[in-house]
Amino acid sequence: MRPLRRGGDSVLALLVLGIWLLMPPVISLFVRPAELFGVPVLVLYLFGVWLLLIVGTAVLARRLPPDQGHLPGLPRRPDESD
Amino acid sequence: MLSANVVLFTALAYVALLFVVAFFSDRRARRGWLGLVRSPIVYTLSISVYCTSWTFYGAVGSAARNGLEFATIYLGPTLVFVGWWFLLRKLVRIGRVHRASSIADLISSRYGKSMSLAVLVTVIAVIGTTPYIALQLKAVTTSFQVVASTTHTALLGIPEADLDLRTGFWVAVGMAVFTILFGTRNIDANEHHHGVVAAIALEALVKLFALIAVGLYVVFAIGGGVGEVFALPASAKVLGAEVFGPRWVALTFLSATAIVCLPRQFQITVVENADEEHLRTAAWLFPLYLFLTCLFTLPIAITGLATMPAGSNPDMYVLTLPMLHDRSALSLLVFIGGFSSATSMVIVASIALSIMVSNHIVMPIALRLAWLSRGVSGDVKSLLLVSRRISIALILSLGFVYFVFSAHSDALAKIGLIAFAGVAQFLPCLIGGLYWHRASKGGAFAGLLIGFVTWAYTLLLPSFEGGAVPASLFSDGPWGIALLRPEALFGAGGMDPLVHALFWSLSLNAGLFVLISLIKDQNPLERLQSTLFVDVFRNPADKESRFIHRSAAIDDLFVLAQRILGAEQAYLLFRDYARRQGIEEGLPRPSTEFIAQLERQFAGSIGAASARVMISQVVTGETISLGEMMRLVDETQQVIEYSQQLEQKSQQLQVTARQLREANERLRLLDAQKDDFLSQVSHEVRTPMASIRSFSEILLETRDLESEQATRFLSIIHDETLRLTRLLDEILDLSHLERGELAWSLQPLDAEAVLDRAIETCRGMAASADVQLVVGPRAGSVRVMGHEDRLNQVFINLISNAIKHNRSRAPVVTVSSAIAEGRYQVTFEDNGEGVPAEARDRIFTKFSRAWTQSRPRDAGAGLGLAISRAIARKMHGDVELLPAGRPGSGVGARFRVSLPLARGQAAPAGELERRAGE
User: Fold this and answer.
1) Tens digits of per-residue pLDDT, B270-285?
2) Phi, psi values for residue B579, rounded to 5°
3) Which chain B residues have a beta carbon less than 8 Å from that of A26?
4) Where is the Histidine kinase domain (chain B) (predicted)?
């Protein structure tokens, strides 16, 4: 996949979305006695959003550009240090 | 039921396994086989040291008491890892560039390598962590007694009074041995403990496996399915708790803070990080680990509440549920899982704390008291090793003592969140230090201090309520001052105690931090460090040498390196650098760069502050070049500005390029039109010329031509000449019109009268073409600014066009006029076929005759519309082709002439229109 040029922006968007979905009042909307497949909707919602964030982060992490000047594995012995 | 011996044996065998794994990983790593030991998976698993026994046992307990609230402890870290790009990435980069050995080291390094700040952070970390270690010891002790008990009453949980402290003691001893063996084998330049990390990763797998196993067992073997579990009445009770209030937000925030600020998390995430790219995997894999950890928490809590005997301790459900059903193997697995989660936390926390204590408390004291004046090779190194080993033993003893004293109360249960809130005090100065240039040492110190004191007063102190602290302190406040009551500070009562403490401690902390940072100026070293930290992605650390100029005798440096790193490592380091300077034999030149690199190397071992002190002992003439530093800041600013300018420029260039392309397009079109025009003109001229020539040739060559015929030929020649003249007149006319050379005076005139005249002129033509010319609604008397003859020409042209090109069987041409939108509008409509869609665009161009090309030459040269439009535009009006009517509607082409009204023609448009309709 093509690396994202402005990767940070999409990470920020996902983060803000996650906070918005997981904080009241949005999460309180799901406090209701309804059930889906025998599981309360609140539980499904919470774990669903959680999974969404995980998948979203995995996709973005793959597409974010590698850091410039990134420090790879540090040398094992000081004689090999930078 | 399991016997105590079996449990003990299993636990010992498990510990032995950990030793083996740690030993072999360490050995592999030492030989340079880092592959497996240092993979992103191992990195992620080791981060899960976050999940202690407080998670393993406590999450279910929390869910049984407060429903979904338990999830906040894992949602906070999830959000931090989702946003890894901003905070964690920067933290890891800074930690690696500056060789931070602990969170205290990082904070001290940022604020001008301040020793006092490092000491304060260390003290807070020790105070916040010790009770947490005690909590782990308690969990192991309790779970051991439960799993090894012979009676069923143990299922209720062990009463605090019956806790066997010996178990806790031996666990503490075992952990101390393990940690000392693998955590202080060497003073690694990078503070990497490969063996420990491998063991922690294994423990992470064991605890997750145990939790999932017990979860599956509870849901499917005991409960009979997910739906069945949630159908239990206990489910409604668990989920019915009102949890989405301020406490939900506060807890999520707190746990997000903890994953960054907890010393053990910092140790694993930043210090032990082997490759920055590992964070990319951990960013989603660690949240996934947390997700799986929490997946079965609710079902276990619900099943426990529903099936365990009344009075059972919910904190032990994970263990007692399988025991109730006599699943010995599973119970043993759960015990080992809980044991894993407790031990991994204890090991990493004590390593992190021991590094802090030795680097930031023992070293400064040693330097101050000149213990190290002998200057023997490796003396600093051995002092560090010894002090770390002693610190580990001391920290674990402290934890054990705390456990003994609080074992018989329930003070420990709450300590998890209290510890989180304690280390949360690092947040303002950490975040400020990472993103705010002005953040200063004074601000950081004051903020930390006030935050810590407030935390201790409002949260830690109340946890001892009923013990050493008199109850009157809580009800009346100290010395009877109600405003200072610990749980209702400044009268802020009625809040959840945790939210209350968090609010006051963090807002006072951050407030003071910002205030003092704004008031107090930074010293040069602070300013340099702030630039290096905040702009870490722009400035490589080795730029440091540009700003600090100092010199030293190379022998002194070599002695110092031997003392801190040991003889062998010092030799290798110096040899390597000498080679890089092109010196094959002997010591390198003591350049500023080399001294800077050496200081960073030392910082990795003894902390930035101590490294600086030790280097300054042998260095002379240190100056921090402010000018250079300002230049660095300027450079950074310039780079930002340049890139912004570049971006702007490139946008402008794009716009210009687009405009140029459009202009070019127009030019091409015009060029093509010109070519068309020329060829059309020659064509139009050629046809009459041809007939003139041929007829005149006949007249010249044929002597005996009948005069009648000759007259006919002459009249044809005359006609063609007239046509030619007309054509050339039209072309001239048009070119004058277009170039604007004709100077007309626009005069007010009665447009309706002109229109009437044009209609009358065309009546004869209409009659001969059998076209019905209908006059529709009219505007009445209208004054417009214009030229009468020219306007007449336009009208006639449009009417005759409509007559000529109307191919309808019963051709009708309708002329109507009105005043609309403040303009005089005349519409010419016919019921022919209309203008073909593809021709609509170009009918106003010269010689277009778009829709008549296939027809006999019944039209003029195709200049009429172009001329009409040019005339109308001269009069500030226009000629337009109106949108085509629907096919079959009987509406063909519709042209509209619109002209501005003469000044003074101010009659309301509505009235005029109405009049027009009459």
Assistant:
1) 988 888 888 989 999 9
2) -60, -40
3) none
4) 680-903
Q: Is there a contact between A72 and B276 if contact means CB atoms under 8 Å apart?
A: yes
Model pLDDT, residue B904: 63
Q: How many CB pairs under 8 A join A and B?
A: 144
pLDDT for residue B293: 92
Strand partners, B465: B469
- DSSP 8-class letter at A77: S
Which architecture does CATH list for B747-917? 2-Layer Sandwich (3.30)
Are the C-beta atoms of residues B265 and B50 closer than 8 Å to each other? Answer: yes
Contact A11 B565 (CB under 8 A): no
Respond yes or no on whether the N-terminal peptide bond of residue A25 is cis (omega within 30° of 0).
Answer: yes
Find the angle CA(B670)-CA(B799)-CA(B805) to the nearest 5 degrees: 70
Q: B644-647 long-range contacts, Cβ below 8 Å, gap at least 24? A: none
Q: Are B293 and B51 in contact (CB under 8 A)?
A: yes
Give me the pLDDT at residue B1, please.
59
The alpha carbon of residue A41 is apart from the nearest alpha carbon of chain B, in Å, by 11
Question: How far is the first Cα of chain A from the last one, in angstroms, to the nearest whole number?
Answer: 32
Residues forming a β-bridge with B620: B551
User: Which three-class secondary structure state does DSSP give residue B466?
Assistant: coil
Query: Please, which residues have CB within 8 angstroms of residue B584's CB and are 6 or more apart in sequence?
Result: B578
Is A46 close to B68, i.e. CB distance below 8 A?
A: yes
Strands (E), B619-742: 619-624
B167 CB burial (10 A radius; 0-12, 13-18, 19+): buried
Chain B residues near residue A43 by CB distance under 8 angstroms: 68, 230, 239, 298
Q: Where in chain B is the domain with CATH 3.30.565.10?
A: 747-917
Ramachandran category for residue B876: left, alpha or beta (phi over 0 → left; psi -120 to 50 → alpha): left
CA distance to B62, B141, B394, B413, per residue, from B423 (Å): 21, 26, 20, 18
Strand B783-786 vs strand B812-820: parallel, antiparallel, or unpaired? unpaired
Which residues of B are less than 8 Å from A78 in CB distance?
189, 565, 569, 572-573, 576, 601
Domain positions in chain A are 7-65
**Interchain contact B88–A (C-beta under 8 A):** no
Burial grade of A30 (CB within 10 A; 0-12, 13-18, 19 or more)? middle
Question: Cα separation of B255 and B258, whole Å?
Answer: 5
DSSP B241-280: S---SHHHHHHHHHHHHHHHHSHHHHIIIIIT---TTHHH
Please state the φ and ψ torsions of residue B310, each to the nearest 5 degrees: -60, 145
- In CATH, the number for domain B4-424 is 1.20.1730.10
Rounded to an integer, what distance in angstroms lies between the CA atom of residue B325 and that of residue B214?
12
What distance in Å separates the CA atoms of residue B685 and residue B216, rounded to the nearest whole number?
A: 97
Let me know: does B542 contact B461? Beta carbons within 8 Å. Answer: no
What pLDDT is recorded for position A4?
54
Q: What's chain A's length in residues?
A: 82
What is the C-alpha to C-alpha distance for residues A29 and B72, in angstroms, rounded to an integer?
17
For an interface test with A, which of B69, B82, B251, B598 has the most A Cβ atoms less than 10 Å from its Cβ? B82
Ramachandran angles phi, psi of B816, nearest 5°: -140, 160
List, as one string, the DSSP characters of B576-599: HHHHHTT-SSSPPP--HHHHHHHH
**Residue B192 to residue A74, Cβ atoms within 8 A:** yes
User: Which residues on chain B are in Cβ contact (under 8 Å) with A38?
Assistant: 225-228, 230-231
Specify the range with the lowest mean pLDDT, choosing from B31-40, B195-204, B332-341, B677-686: B31-40
> B678 is written with which tokens?
């020329």
**In chain B, ranges of CATH 1.10.287.130 domains:** 630-739
* Contact residues on chain A for B573, CB-CB shorter than 8 A: 78-79, 81
Residue listed under structure tokens 């069945």: B228
Is the pTM above the cut of 0.80?
A: no
Answer yes or no: CATH 1.10.287.130 is held by domain B630-739: yes
At B774, is the secondary structure helix, strand, or coil? Answer: strand
